[in-house]
């Protein structure tokens, strides 16, 4: 029976570095062209070459940097010569940014004769979506006579927007699209 709780180590797989890499096989090495003082170089100054693992270790020692295994499944495996601490920091930062940029558009349906309690439930659900980082599309569907009195029918939509004011703001005023009125709410800054 395994541990069902994940530790922080499981979040980011640690690559093999320096002495953990053994054998005598060819690898593709990505390394800085020119290293000035304190190994400062820009991202654009990288070269890549296929060489033996022994040569790669020798080159990393000359540059006074670490040899990091980036992709062991490639043929030949890809290694990078870089400062391990800086590389790990940048990788974690990239993963965090990628996680944060995923926003979805959730939809909430309303009708003109919705009850007060039902409206509160929908507001709470929309609030949950907004606080989770998503945008919310609120759709008010109107039928028959409700269409002839559009402004009066939109009162529940405006009430919904007012109830969400503490966490969300509308991207624009409600738009009429046929038998529907639509507004998109986003997180307040």
Can you walk through the features of this model?
With 189 residues, this protein is an alpha+beta fold. It has two domains: 15-100, Translation initiation factor 3 (IF-3), N-terminal domain (Ubiquitin-like (UB roll)); 105-187, Translation initiation factor 3 (IF-3), C-terminal domain (Translation Initiation Factor IF3), CATH 3.30.110.10. Helices cover 32% and strands 28% of the residues. It has six helices and nine strands, in the order ββαββαβαβαααβββ. It has helices spanning 53-63, 84-100, 116-131, 145-148, 150-153, 155-163; strands at 26-32, 46-52, 66-71, 78-82, 105-111, 135-141, 168-170, 175-177, 180-187. The strands form two sheets. Strands 5, 6, 7, 8 and 9 form a five-stranded mixed β-sheet that branches. A four-stranded mixed β-sheet has the order 2-1-4-3. It is rod-shaped, with a radius of gyration of 28 Å. The two termini are 46 Å apart. Mean pLDDT is 81; it is low at 36-42.
**Most strands sheet:** 5 strands, mixed
CATH fold label of the largest domain = Ubiquitin-like (UB roll)
Number of domain units: 2
Structural class, please? Answer: alpha+beta
CATH-level-4 superfamily name of the largest domain: Translation initiation factor 3 (IF-3), N-terminal domain
Q: How helical, in percent, are the residues?
A: 25-40%
Distance between the termini: 46 Å
- Radius of gyration from the CA trace? 28 Å
Mean pLDDT: 81
CATH class of the largest domain: Alpha Beta
Pick out the low-confidence regions.
36-42
Principal-axes shape call: rod-shaped
Percentage beta strand: 25-35%
Beta strand count: 9
Assigned CATH architecture of the largest domain: Roll
């Amino acid at each position: 029976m395994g541990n069902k709780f994940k530790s922080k180590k499981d979040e980011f797989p640690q690559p093999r570095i320096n002495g953990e890499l053994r054998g005598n096989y060819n690898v593709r090495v990505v390394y800085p062209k020119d290293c000035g003082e304190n190994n400062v170089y820009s991202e654009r100054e990288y070269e890549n070459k296929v060489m033996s693992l022994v040569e790669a270790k020798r080159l990393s020692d000359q540059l006074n940097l670490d040899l990091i295994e980036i992709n062991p499944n490639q043929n030949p495996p890809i290694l990078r010569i870089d400062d391990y601490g800086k590389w790990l920091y940048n990788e974690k930062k990239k993963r965090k940014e990628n996680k944060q940029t995923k926003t979805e558009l959730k939809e909430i349906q309303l009708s003109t004769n919705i009850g007060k309690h039902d409206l509160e439930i929908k507001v709470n659900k929309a609030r949950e979506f907004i606080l989770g980082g998503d945008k919310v599309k609120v759709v008010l569907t109107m039928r028959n006579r409700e269409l002839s009195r559009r402004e009066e029918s939109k009162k529940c939509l405006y009430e919904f927007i007012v109830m969400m004011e503490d966490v969300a703001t509308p991207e624009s005023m409600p738009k009429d699209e046929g038998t529907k009125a639509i507004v998109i709410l986003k997180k307040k800054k």
